[in-house]
Write a structure and sequence with these properties.
single chain, alpha+beta, Beta-lactamase Inhibitory Protein, Chain:B, domain 1, 7-stranded mixed sheet, 6-stranded antiparallel sheet, 10 helices, 20 strands, 20% helix, elongated
């Protein structure tokens, strides 16, 4: 993001040096009048901030920049209301807090990034950073803990006006300063810390900041201040994870339902590990098919592309499969409050096979034609007409027996040629007239 202030730009232009002289004096006077008119005309807009999104190139003003949808995991938290005393924390209470919180376990309510700086939470106040800066930190430094993951407070440091918590080992490597110290005699130097192949730290850091000084606190009050980011309640992993989600999405996971748009973590919390997996290609898009259930029980096919569910198919015995393709999670995870339209139908039924018509009760489809819709061919064209079923001619038993020639026992054909049987559809041959009173044959 690039933010430009209108007032800052005008102030910079006004501070430009102007040489003395008649024309320059007139220019300076005209510029001052223009500046005053601009400030009066813009009014409150003089302090307006213009935001330029370097990724998409969109330009928004300060009023509209806050209305952009942000993932709920990176939005601003709701401040707590824990009453704090005005007395300063003494040495005894300091030791008790360190003893109580050291090695304490909780559940992450927000994504925790790696990095030396970490997140900063003001006591009964806001979280820094938030929004896009929060997402950039997670993307740049890496993710230490996801919402619902277990956290361990490995180190607690209480300073004058803040308390620093190292989570899951902290973001700094061990002995990071001593690694640069070497001891030796002459040209041979040996490092003080041996074994520089320690694994890279994957922990996070959280700073709880107070105004002026750290007041007198009990362990319960300190946990209440950290509640927006860390939950110390006794929960199961699925309870800790679903507490970070919106209500409708939480009900779906606890009800063991898979919605299109869920992540793989949500699917695992809702249904557990699949009984089988297949990897296929849909054109150029690879996907995984997670299969739950076996016949005669309902079988659920969950199609996943990357880390998101893109298709859910539920097949039941004796029923056509129900297929879900609409993303129902995106609106729930955005801060713009996109409602989930429950009245809209989200299923469509797939027909089994390629049969479009019942041949016993429905007429066949019209044959293909090159005629345009509504076009009529000339009436004199004898080739026009509709396609009709092909009828095969019926054969009589005499025709079937006469199709073969008679043969002699020795394999030689007989001298008499057998005439084909007369066809009833053909006229009988005319008889020859008698000659010289001879009787006809």
């Amino acid at each position: 993001m690039i933010r430009l202030s209108i007032c800052e730009g005008l102030r910079t232009s006004f501070r430009r040096p102007v040489r003395a002289g008649g024309k320059n004096a007139l220019r300076r006077s005209a510029f001052r009048r223009l500046l005053a008119a601009t400030l009066l005309a813009t009014g409150a807009a003089a302090a307006q901030v213009i935001t330029v999104d370097t990724r998409t190139g969109t330009v928004t003003n300060g009023a509209a920049s806050g209305s952009a949808p942000v993932d709920r995991r990176y939005q601003q938290i709701a401040p707590t209301h824990v009453p704090l005393t005005k007395s300063e924390l003494d040495a005894k209470t300091r030791l008790e807090l360190i003893r109580l919180l050291n090695a304490e376990q909780g559940f992450a309510m927000r994504p925790f990034p790696r990095g030396h700086k970490g997140l900063t939470l003001a006591a009964n106040g806001k979280l820094e950073p938030v929004g896009e800066n929060y997402l950039d930190m997670v993307t740049k430094e890496g993710l230490s803990a996801k919402p619902g993951d277990r956290l361990v407070l490995t180190d607690v440091k209480i300073e004058r006006a803040k308390i620093v918590f190292d989570l899951n080992g902290g973001p700094d490597p061990k002995h990071r300063f001593m690694r640069h110290v070497q001891v030796g005699v002459g040209p041979e130097m040996n490092p003080v810390m041996q074994g520089g192949n320690d694994p890279e730290p994957v922990g996070a850091r959280l700073t709880l900041a107070f105004q002026g000084r750290v007041p007198e606190l009990t362990g319960a009050e300190l946990k209440a201040l950290l509640a927006p980011l860390i939950s110390f309640d006794v929960k199961t992993p699925i309870q800790a994870f679903t507490d970070t989600l919106p209500g409708k999405l939480k009900e779906a996971i606890l009800g063991h339902h898979v919605l299109v748009g869920m992540s793989t973590d949500m699917v695992l919390f809702a249904k557990g590990a699949p009984e089988s997996k297949t990897r296929e290609m849909d054109g150029l898009m690879p996907f995984e098919e997670w299969i739950y259930g076996r016949p005669p029980q309902p079988v659920e096919f969950v199609r996943i592309n990357g880390n998101q569910v893109i298709r859910v198919e539920i097949a039941k015995m004796g029923e056509p499969p129900a297929i879900f393709t609409k993303n129902e999670v995106e609106g729930l995870m955005r801060t713009d409050g996109t409602p989930l339209d429950m009245g809209e139908s989200k299923t469509w039924t797939a027909k089994v096979g390629d049969v479009e018509r019942d041949p016993d009760t429905q007429a066949p489809a019209a044959p293909p034609s090159l005629r345009a819709p509504g076009e009529k061919l000339p009436a004199g064209d004898a080739t026009t007409g509709e396609m009709k079923p092909v009828r095969f001619p019926k054969q009589t038993p005499d025709a079937q027996s006469s199709s073969s020639t008679d043969e002699q026992p020795d394999g030689q054909p007989s001298g008499k040629a057998q005439m084909p049987a007369a066809d009833a559809s053909q006229p009988a041959p005319a008889k020859a007239p008698p000659t010289n009173g001879a009787p006809p044959n």
